[in-house]
Give the backbone structure.
Amino acid sequence: KVKLPVLCDTNGNKVVDITSLYKSTGILTYDPGFMSTAACESKITFIDGSKGILCYRGYNIADLVNSNKSFIEIVYLLFYGSFPSVDDFKDFMLQISQEYMPPKMICDVIKSFSQDAHPMTILMACFSGLASYYNNQQHCENELKYARLAVSQIAGIIAMIYRHITDQDFIQANTELSYSENFIHMMFDISSYEFTKIVSKALDIIFILHADHEQNASTATVRLTGSTGANLFACLAAGAATLWGPAHGGANEAVINMLMEIEQPSNVKQFVQKVKDKNNGIRLMGFGHRVYKNYDPRAKIICEICKEVLKDLKVSHPLLEIALELENIALQDSYFIERNLYPNVDFYSGIVLKAIGIPVSMFTTLFALARTSGWSAQWYEMIKDKNYKICRPRQL
């Protein structure tokens, strides 16, 4: 027999510490997908899947959105654990705004790809390029400086990727604009104040909702890669590769494809019946979550943002009508209710992005832009952890 300590998090959830189990008994645990395994201790993000709760540094996600905090203020919160003073925010934002443009070698990397290359492959190459560019100095300077640099430069990089695949010249950053406003400027070179105001607000909220999400597949990959001592940008390249998968960051792209396949609201009932027939192999994209067994709190917020954006831009979007009808039917069907299949954040986010002019192929890069803040915060927390060691899972 061996006694295993039981730990409790700040919310009273119990965790059995099995660190000494193998050494004491020679017995390993078997947990495919790590659904019952806590691989680290983290103070950044908390999720209660049964209650549909998501918090950053103790702040409920809905409260953060309703407080009208900017994305960069949330980035600061993730990095430092508290909101900045007025002076600290000015200094942080000044540093962010001065670093939007990546090194010339990254511009050359982007241009080296064919215009039909998937944007995520270009982004992964750019992260690898930054890993090389900053490798020598990163290990002897303030590591958090590079986390800030990553958040800043990914905005410029993704805008450049968009300009490249659409055969347009790169646009210089405008340091007088907010983070999201500058991103729109570098993407579209649009001078319309009204469009920028509407879209920047929507993007800020989308970025906040996607900033971090506990130990998901890509974040766990960033931590695992970082445990070897690899520099931040190498870890971000690994995280981006994981994010690209259709079951993770590529899900909102899959949702758009599904809605386009349905074509019109009147076809929703027939589509739902096909989903319920296991022989068809058709999946209901944008529903269900590995952690949430209730309504994804981010989905409620982004659904309202979707409606607001379409209203403010004075456009109608047939995909929204299909999505609303699909949600309405699915939430009244016992098949989906019994399986805890509720809309997740991916269900509506793609509609918003498509409405503001983001190509479907670019969706996952915007997810990566937002999640870079969380990846970087998690990486920094890991390397400062006294229990930090190389990850080495076992097998059966």
User: Anything to note?
Assistant: Strands lie at 6-8, 14-16, 45-48, 53-56, 59-60. The chain has three domains: 6-59, 70-244, 251-355. The chain is about 55% helix and 5% strand. The radius of gyration is 21 Å.
